[in-house]
Design goal:
With 235 residues, the chain is mostly beta strands. It has 1 helix and 12 strands; from the N terminus they run ββββββββββββα.
Amino acid sequence: MSLYPPPETSYPYPPPEKEKSIPYPAQPQTTSTTTAHSRSPSPAPAYATSRTLHIYSSSSWSTRHITIADADRSHPLYTLTKNHGGLFSSKPHMTVTSAQTPALVVGTATFHSMSRRVELEFHGQGVIFEPEGLFTRSHGYRSPSSGGERLKWKCEGWGHDLVLVNSRKEWIAKFDAAVWAMKKLGKLEIRDAGIAGRALDEIVVSGLAMVELERRRRNSSSASAGSGGSGGGGC
C-alpha cells in the first residue's frame, strides 16, 4: 500500500497499471510470539520485481538526443533533448518528453554556470535540485509524487554510478553507466517495478539531471587539469 495517493490523471505510458508513489509499501507486520532467544530479524519489505530502463544516445559522438527504452530495449518510453547552445542558450537546457506523445513534456532541467543548484520541473511543477553539502557529490529535492519527502541522488563508489535514496536511506533507483559503450549511456534500475506514471517520470528526469551534472563536473575538472589545476576524481 502506498504512503501517498496516486495522481488522479491517466497517463499514456507505461502500460496501464495501478500507480505507486516512490516510497515503498510498509514492511509486513510481524508477531511477537517468539522468545528473546529465538527471535529472528524482521523480514525485509516485499517488493515487486525490479524494472530496468536502457539509455541510448542518437550517435556515438553526440548526447544531444537520448532515448530511454523499457526493459525489452525496443519500446521507447522517453526522449531527452539537450540544448548545447552555450552559456547564454535558451532554457531549459534539458527537456524530457513522452516517446509516445512527443508534445507531452514530462520534465525539464535548467543548469547554472555559477551554481550547482538545478531547477527541475515535473509536469510543470518546479522544484529545486540542490547539493546536499559543499563538497559532496549528491543532490536532493522535495518529491511531489511522494508528498514532499526529500529524496537524494548520490554517487556510489568511485565510478560514474549513481543511486537514489529516500529519507530512510532505502535505495529507490540506481544508474549504472556504460563507460566503454559507443551509444549506450547506461541503465536505470527501478527497485520496485510497480512504480509508474508521474512517480516514474520524476525518477527518470531527476536521474538524467544528475547524470548531466556529473558529466559537466568531469568536463570542468578535465579543463582545470589541462590548465594546470588538479583534476577531479570519481564520486
